[in-house]
Amino acid sequence: MRELLEQINSYYPLSEETVGAMVNICTEERFRKNELLQEAGAVARYYYFIKSGLVGYYTTDEQGDSIYKIFFEEKSFVASTAAIIKGQPSDFNIVALEDCSVIKYPVKAFRELIVQYHDLALFQISYLEKNWVVKKEPLEISLKHETAKQRYLQLLENKSLYNRLKQHHIASYLGITPTQLSRIKKEIK
């Protein structure tokens, strides 16, 4: 729980009372590589905090191919946030790309705590602002204005993530085929 609380406190510090309430709704779980944390079409019931492992967030196209939107490493919060906010089934699958250890907490219980504990609500606001507005906006602009090569070079800057991804994950994330990715890699060398 220490890692979770440290990460929450990096956004907004929680009181001891709030920490106690939060800890009471959390459980630890392990997911094996390729297991789904969240299935597309299902209602999102949990928020997850990644203690160890790598998680991918993807949808499937008409041909059945996986289209990766984003990847999450340790110390990340993961959920089908848009589905939770809209109260609708998720459009995305969340899959363990490596064996993972997570702390999960139920959406309903967490939303009740947000109403009850002002500091937890301030954490949630700060988290959403930093990760769903500030961090997400450059990614959206990148998708519209940058080439796959430019986006690949940006991904390459995050060595810890890049080295953990399979080539087909990278190609999917960039919106290109593995063959096109190979050409980009050769061109860069």
TrEMBL record:
Residues 10-131 form the Cyclic nucleotide-binding domain. SMART domains: cNMP (SM00100). Gene3D superfamilies: Jelly Rolls (2.60.120.10). It comes from the Bacteria. Coiled coil: none annotated. It holds the Pfam family cNMP_binding. One of its GO terms (molecular function) is kinase activity. CDD domains: CAP_ED. The keyword Plastid does not apply. This is cAMP-binding domain of CRP or a regulatory subunit of cAMP-dependent protein kinases. The lineage of its organism: Bacteria, Pseudomonadati, Bacteroidota, Flavobacteriia, Flavobacteriales.
